[in-house]
Protein backbone atom coordinates (compact mmCIF):
# COMPACT_ATOMS: atom_id res chain seq x y z
CA UNK A 1 0.00 0.00 0.00
CA UNK A 2 1.07 3.56 -0.70
CA UNK A 3 0.10 5.58 2.39
CA UNK A 4 0.78 9.31 2.16
CA UNK A 5 0.48 11.81 5.01
CA UNK A 6 0.04 15.33 3.64
CA UNK A 7 1.02 17.84 6.26
CA UNK A 8 1.25 21.62 6.59
CA UNK A 9 -0.28 24.74 8.07
CA UNK A 10 -3.89 25.78 7.41
CA UNK A 11 -4.04 26.97 3.80
CA UNK A 12 -0.80 25.25 2.78
CA UNK A 13 -2.60 23.36 0.00
CA UNK A 14 -3.20 19.93 1.60
CA UNK A 15 -6.70 19.54 0.14
CA UNK A 16 -5.76 20.97 -3.26
CA UNK A 17 -2.74 18.70 -3.69
CA UNK A 18 -4.61 15.68 -2.28
CA UNK A 19 -7.06 15.86 -5.18
CA UNK A 20 -4.20 15.70 -7.70
CA UNK A 21 -2.44 12.87 -5.84
CA UNK A 22 -5.65 10.82 -5.76
CA UNK A 23 -6.08 11.16 -9.53
CA UNK A 24 -2.46 10.33 -10.30
CA UNK A 25 -2.02 7.36 -7.94
CA UNK A 26 -5.57 6.05 -7.43
CA UNK A 27 -5.48 6.48 -3.66
CA UNK A 28 -8.37 6.88 -1.24
CA UNK A 29 -8.65 10.22 0.54
CA UNK A 30 -9.27 10.65 4.27
CA UNK A 31 -9.58 14.29 5.32
CA UNK A 32 -10.43 14.60 9.02
CA UNK A 33 -11.55 18.21 8.41
CA UNK A 34 -14.02 17.06 5.70
CA UNK A 35 -15.34 14.23 7.91
CA UNK A 36 -15.84 16.66 10.81
CA UNK A 37 -17.60 19.23 8.58
CA UNK A 38 -19.94 16.50 7.33
CA UNK A 39 -20.67 15.46 10.95
CA UNK A 40 -21.40 19.12 11.74
CA UNK A 41 -23.73 19.45 8.76
CA UNK A 42 -25.62 16.32 9.83
CA UNK A 43 -25.75 17.61 13.42
CA UNK A 44 -24.46 14.33 14.87
CA UNK A 45 -23.19 14.14 18.48
CA UNK A 46 -19.59 14.30 17.21
CA UNK A 47 -20.50 17.19 14.91
CA UNK A 48 -22.00 19.18 17.77
CA UNK A 49 -18.88 18.68 19.92
CA UNK A 50 -16.48 19.41 17.02
CA UNK A 51 -18.27 22.67 16.07
CA UNK A 52 -17.11 24.47 19.24
CA UNK A 53 -13.47 23.52 18.68
CA UNK A 54 -13.44 24.25 14.95
CA UNK A 55 -15.03 27.67 15.31
CA UNK A 56 -12.39 28.63 17.88
CA UNK A 57 -9.61 27.28 15.67
CA UNK A 58 -8.67 24.65 18.24
CA UNK A 59 -7.99 20.94 17.77
CA UNK A 60 -10.78 18.44 18.42
CA UNK A 61 -9.62 16.07 21.25
CA UNK A 62 -7.37 13.20 20.14
CA UNK A 63 -9.61 10.41 21.43
CA UNK A 64 -12.58 11.56 19.33
CA UNK A 65 -10.43 11.99 16.23
CA UNK A 66 -8.67 8.63 16.59
CA UNK A 67 -11.97 6.73 17.04
CA UNK A 68 -13.43 8.53 14.03
CA UNK A 69 -10.36 7.79 11.93
CA UNK A 70 -10.36 4.08 12.85
CA UNK A 71 -13.94 3.72 11.54
CA UNK A 72 -13.14 5.52 8.29
CA UNK A 73 -10.00 3.42 7.82
CA UNK A 74 -11.99 0.21 8.21
CA UNK A 75 -14.18 1.32 5.30
CA UNK A 76 -11.02 1.52 3.09
CA UNK A 77 -9.82 -2.03 3.78
CA UNK A 78 -9.37 -2.95 0.10
CA UNK A 79 -7.66 0.27 -0.86
CA UNK A 80 -4.43 0.59 -2.93
CA UNK A 81 -3.38 3.19 -0.40
CA UNK A 82 -4.65 6.18 1.48
CA UNK A 83 -3.81 9.87 1.58
CA UNK A 84 -4.21 11.23 5.11
CA UNK A 85 -5.07 14.94 4.90
CA UNK A 86 -5.13 16.91 8.18
CA UNK A 87 -4.30 13.82 10.23
CA UNK A 88 -2.21 13.25 12.29
CA UNK A 89 -1.94 16.64 13.99
CA UNK A 90 -0.45 15.62 17.36
CA UNK A 91 2.11 13.05 18.52
CA UNK A 92 -0.61 10.78 20.08
CA UNK A 93 -2.47 10.85 16.72
CA UNK A 94 0.75 9.91 14.86
CA UNK A 95 1.37 7.05 17.28
CA UNK A 96 -2.24 5.87 16.92
CA UNK A 97 -1.99 5.98 13.12
CA UNK A 98 1.21 3.93 13.16
CA UNK A 99 -0.43 1.32 15.41
CA UNK A 100 -3.59 1.15 13.27
CA UNK A 101 -1.60 0.75 10.04
CA UNK A 102 0.82 -1.79 11.56
CA UNK A 103 -2.16 -3.87 12.75
CA UNK A 104 -3.31 -3.90 9.14
CA UNK A 105 0.14 -4.99 7.93
CA UNK A 106 1.14 -1.63 6.52
CA UNK A 107 2.68 1.75 7.52
CA UNK A 108 3.05 5.36 6.41
CA UNK A 109 5.11 5.40 3.17
CA UNK A 110 5.91 9.13 3.11
CA UNK A 111 5.07 12.37 4.92
CA UNK A 112 4.94 15.45 2.68
CA UNK A 113 5.47 18.65 4.68
CA UNK A 114 4.24 21.65 2.65
CA UNK A 115 6.21 24.82 3.43
CA UNK A 116 4.36 28.09 2.81
CA UNK A 117 5.07 31.63 4.09
CA UNK A 118 2.67 32.86 6.77
CA UNK A 119 1.43 35.95 4.85
CA UNK A 120 0.61 33.73 1.85
CA UNK A 121 -1.36 31.32 4.13
CA UNK A 122 -3.47 34.18 5.50
CA UNK A 123 -4.04 35.61 2.02
CA UNK A 124 -5.21 32.23 0.64
CA UNK A 125 -7.58 31.53 3.55
CA UNK A 126 -9.15 35.00 3.54
CA UNK A 127 -9.66 34.66 -0.21
CA UNK A 128 -11.28 31.21 0.20
CA UNK A 129 -13.43 32.52 3.10
CA UNK A 130 -15.21 34.87 0.67
CA UNK A 131 -16.76 31.92 -1.18
CA UNK A 132 -16.35 28.75 0.92
CA UNK A 133 -18.79 29.49 3.72
CA UNK A 134 -16.30 27.83 6.10
CA UNK A 135 -17.00 29.23 9.56
CA UNK A 136 -13.27 29.08 10.43
CA UNK A 137 -12.04 31.17 7.46
CA UNK A 138 -12.13 34.56 9.21
CA UNK A 139 -9.09 36.52 10.38
CA UNK A 140 -9.55 35.89 14.12
CA UNK A 141 -9.99 32.11 13.73
CA UNK A 142 -7.24 31.89 11.09
CA UNK A 143 -4.79 33.47 13.58
CA UNK A 144 -5.75 30.99 16.26
CA UNK A 145 -5.51 28.05 13.79
CA UNK A 146 -1.98 29.19 12.88
CA UNK A 147 -1.00 29.51 16.55
CA UNK A 148 -2.34 26.02 17.28
CA UNK A 149 -0.49 24.71 14.23
CA UNK A 150 2.85 26.14 15.43
CA UNK A 151 2.41 24.97 19.03
CA UNK A 152 0.75 21.56 18.68
CA UNK A 153 1.15 20.31 15.12
CA UNK A 154 4.45 21.57 13.63
CA UNK A 155 6.54 19.64 16.24
CA UNK A 156 5.14 16.45 14.72
CA UNK A 157 7.54 16.85 11.78
CA UNK A 158 10.29 15.45 14.04
CA UNK A 159 8.29 12.26 14.59
CA UNK A 160 8.45 11.57 10.84
CA UNK A 161 12.07 12.70 10.54
CA UNK A 162 12.93 10.00 13.10
CA UNK A 163 10.81 7.47 11.16
CA UNK A 164 12.77 8.39 7.99
CA UNK A 165 9.52 9.36 6.24
CA UNK A 166 9.70 13.19 6.24
CA UNK A 167 10.06 15.12 2.96
CA UNK A 168 9.88 18.95 2.95
CA UNK A 169 8.05 20.30 -0.12
CA UNK A 170 8.22 23.95 -1.16
CA UNK A 171 4.51 24.87 -1.17
CA UNK A 172 4.85 28.25 -2.88
CA UNK A 173 4.33 28.72 -6.63
CA UNK A 174 1.62 27.42 -8.92
CA UNK A 175 -0.47 24.36 -8.01
CA UNK A 176 1.14 22.48 -10.94
CA UNK A 177 4.69 23.39 -9.87
CA UNK A 178 4.02 22.13 -6.35
CA UNK A 179 2.43 18.93 -7.65
CA UNK A 180 5.56 18.31 -9.77
CA UNK A 181 7.67 18.40 -6.58
CA UNK A 182 5.23 16.06 -4.83
CA UNK A 183 5.26 13.51 -7.68
CA UNK A 184 9.05 13.45 -7.61
CA UNK A 185 8.99 12.71 -3.85
CA UNK A 186 6.30 10.01 -4.09
CA UNK A 187 7.89 8.31 -7.10
CA UNK A 188 11.12 7.97 -5.12
CA UNK A 189 9.42 5.79 -2.47
CA UNK A 190 6.81 3.98 -4.55
P1 LIG B 1 -8.87 21.12 8.12
O1 LIG B 1 -10.08 21.01 7.31
O2 LIG B 1 -7.86 20.03 8.06
O3 LIG B 1 -8.24 22.53 7.82
P2 LIG B 1 -6.76 23.12 7.83
O4 LIG B 1 -5.66 22.24 8.29
O5 LIG B 1 -6.91 24.41 8.56
O6 LIG B 1 -6.46 23.27 6.35
P3 LIG B 1 -7.32 23.91 5.21
O7 LIG B 1 -8.36 22.97 4.72
O8 LIG B 1 -7.80 25.27 5.62
O9 LIG B 1 -6.20 24.18 4.16
P4 LIG B 1 -5.42 23.18 3.19
O10 LIG B 1 -4.00 23.03 3.67
O11 LIG B 1 -6.19 21.93 2.91
O12 LIG B 1 -5.36 24.10 1.93
P5 LIG B 1 -6.33 24.12 0.63
O13 LIG B 1 -5.84 23.13 -0.36
O14 LIG B 1 -7.74 24.06 1.06
O15 LIG B 1 -9.26 21.27 9.67
C1 LIG B 1 -10.24 22.19 10.10
C2 LIG B 1 -10.42 22.07 11.60
O16 LIG B 1 -10.92 20.75 11.93
C3 LIG B 1 -9.17 22.22 12.46
O17 LIG B 1 -8.88 23.58 12.74
C4 LIG B 1 -9.54 21.43 13.72
O18 LIG B 1 -10.39 22.18 14.55
C5 LIG B 1 -10.34 20.27 13.15
N1 LIG B 1 -9.51 19.10 12.83
C6 LIG B 1 -9.28 18.56 11.59
N2 LIG B 1 -8.46 17.51 11.67
C7 LIG B 1 -8.16 17.37 12.98
C8 LIG B 1 -7.30 16.48 13.69
N3 LIG B 1 -6.60 15.53 13.05
N4 LIG B 1 -7.21 16.62 15.03
C9 LIG B 1 -7.91 17.57 15.70
N5 LIG B 1 -8.72 18.46 15.08
C10 LIG B 1 -8.82 18.37 13.73
O19 LIG B 1 -5.94 25.57 0.07
C11 LIG B 1 -6.36 26.73 0.73
C12 LIG B 1 -6.76 27.78 -0.31
O20 LIG B 1 -5.59 28.15 -1.05
C13 LIG B 1 -7.79 27.27 -1.34
O21 LIG B 1 -8.68 28.29 -1.65
C14 LIG B 1 -6.92 26.90 -2.57
O22 LIG B 1 -7.62 27.01 -3.77
C15 LIG B 1 -5.78 27.90 -2.45
N6 LIG B 1 -4.51 27.37 -2.96
C16 LIG B 1 -4.02 26.10 -2.79
N7 LIG B 1 -2.80 26.00 -3.37
C17 LIG B 1 -2.51 27.24 -3.90
C18 LIG B 1 -1.40 27.77 -4.62
N8 LIG B 1 -0.34 27.02 -4.90
N9 LIG B 1 -1.42 29.07 -4.97
C19 LIG B 1 -2.53 29.85 -4.66
N10 LIG B 1 -3.61 29.40 -4.01
C20 LIG B 1 -3.61 28.11 -3.62
Automatic annotation (TrEMBL):
| Localization of this protein | Cytoplasm
Q: Major place of localization?
A: cytoplasm
Q: In which pathway does it act?
A: Purine metabolism; AMP biosynthesis via salvage pathway; AMP from ADP: step 1/1
**Which residues hold ATP?**
11-16, 128, 173
What keywords tag this UniProt record? ATP-binding, Cytoplasm, Kinase, Nucleotide biosynthesis, Nucleotide-binding, Transferase
Enzyme Commission number(s) of this protein: 2.7.4.3
Catalyses which reaction(s): AMP + ATP = 2 ADP
Concerning CDD domains, the annotation shows: ADK (cd01428)
Q: Which InterPro entries match?
A: Adenylat/UMP-CMP_kin, Adenylat_kinase_CS, P-loop_NTPase
* Entry keyword Ligase: no
Q: Which GO terms describe its molecular function?
A: AMP kinase activity
Matching PROSITE patterns, A to Z?
ADENYLATE_KINASE
- Name the residues that bind AMP: 32, 37, 58-60, 86-89, 93, 134, 145
Q: Where is this region: NMP?
A: 31-60
Question: Could you say which protein family the record assigns here?
Answer: Belongs to the adenylate kinase family.
Q: Which PANTHER family does this chain map to?
A: NUCLEOTIDE KINASE
Q: What does this protein do?
A: Catalyzes the reversible transfer of the terminal phosphate group between ATP and AMP. Plays an important role in cellular energy homeostasis and in adenine nucleotide metabolism.
Domain notes from UniProt: Consists of three domains, a large central CORE domain and two small peripheral domains, NMPbind and LID, which undergo movements during catalysis. The LID domain closes over the site of phosphoryl transfer upon ATP binding. Assembling and dissambling the active center during each catalytic cycle provides an effective means to prevent ATP hydrolysis.
Q: How does it assemble?
A: Monomer.
- Supply the name of the protein: Adenylate kinase
Amino acid sequence: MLNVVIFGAPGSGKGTQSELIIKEYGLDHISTGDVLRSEMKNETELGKIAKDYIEKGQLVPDELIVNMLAKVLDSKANSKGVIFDGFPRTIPQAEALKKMLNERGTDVSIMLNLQVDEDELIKRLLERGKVSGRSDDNLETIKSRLEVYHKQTAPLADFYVKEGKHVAIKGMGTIEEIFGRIKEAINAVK
